[in-house]
Amino acid sequence: MCNIAIFASGSGSNAENLAKHFLPNPKVKITLTASENPNAFVLQRAKRLGIPTYSFTMNELRNGIVLSKLIEQKIDFIALAGFLKMVPVDMVRHFNNRIVNIHPALLPKYGGKGMYGDRVHKAVIAAGETESGITIHHVNEHYDEGDIIFQASCPVLPNDTPETLAQRVHELEWLYYPKVIETLLEKLG
Ligand code: GAR
């Protein structure tokens, strides 16, 4: 059995999609949905699905309390799904290669601190890109710089707004994030 914790800061459509994907899989359990934002809609989604929630402060993230909670809950793997904070080094080291993130653009472009959600789509449109997409990558000590596991692209259309592009990118995320995690878990054993 692999225990997964999902970390998310906002709406949580990816978190819900992951949870629903793994529900029928007896080898994988979404053990926890964690957020630094006590008002994040993801916590309501998790409660509706019967998944335990864990709301923590930034202090608790930085001083090791969150890591202790993950160890206590026997978490094996972490999926970031719209989690907007830096994962502390002790957590990255403890879960060596077992933390993944999804980013709503084709890294290494449009990544780094402050690049998340609609800000990414605004920047992509402002730069006149004709292509965007998703990147699923390992998490290391730097924002959006871990090894890339998977990318998929979609067009940026002439009349796109950040909202229409976000929708197209979200559809790629919902399609691929669960499958990529599943394959990774099989490899990790
Ligand atoms: C997703 O598009 C995800 O790629 C992005 O936040 C969105 C969360 O949507 N993550 C980042 O920008 C991380 N830098 P959701 O809350 O509906 O899953």
Which small-molecule ligands are present, each listed once? glycinamide ribonucleotide
Number of strands: 7
CATH topology: Rossmann fold
Using the alpha-carbon principal axes, give the shape.
Answer: globular
- The residue-averaged pLDDT reads 97
State the helical fraction. Answer: 25-40%
Q: Poorly predicted ranges (pLDDT <50, ≥5 residues)?
A: none
SSE order? EHEHEHHEHEHEEH
Corresponding CATH architecture = 3-Layer(aba) Sandwich
* Overall tally of structural domains: 1
The CATH superfamily appears as Formyl transferase, N-terminal domain
Give the number of helices: 7
SSE diagram, text form:
Layout: E1 2-7, H1 13-22, E2 28-35, H2 41-48, E3 53-55, H3 58-62, H4 65-72, E4 77-80, H5 89-94, E5 99-103, H6 117-126, E6 131-138, E7 148-155, H7 162-188
Parallel strand pairs: 1-2, 1-4, 2-3, 4-5
Antiparallel strand pairs: 5-6, 6-7
Helix pairs in contact: 1-7, 6-7
This protein binds glycinamide ribonucleotide.
The site of glycinamide ribonucleotide has 16 residues, from helix 1, strand 5, helix 6 and helix 7.
Task: Put the structure in a nutshell.
By secondary structure, the chain is an alpha/beta fold. The protein has seven helices and seven strands.
Report on this structure.
This protein has 189 residues and is α/β, with parallel strands linked by helices. The protein has a single domain (2-188), classed as Formyl transferase, N-terminal domain (Rossmann fold), CATH 3.40.50.170. The chain has 7 helices and 7 strands. The chain has a 7-stranded mixed sheet with strand order 3-2-1-4-5-6-7, with helices on one face. Strand 1 (2-7), helix 1 and strand 2 form a beta-alpha-beta unit. Helix 1 (13-22) runs parallel beside helix 7 (162-188) and helix 6 (117-126) crosses helix 7 (162-188). The radius of gyration is 16 Å and the shape is globular. The protein binds glycinamide ribonucleotide (GAR). Glycinamide ribonucleotide (GAR) binds at residues 8, 10-14, 81-82, 102-104, 116-117, 120, 170, 173.
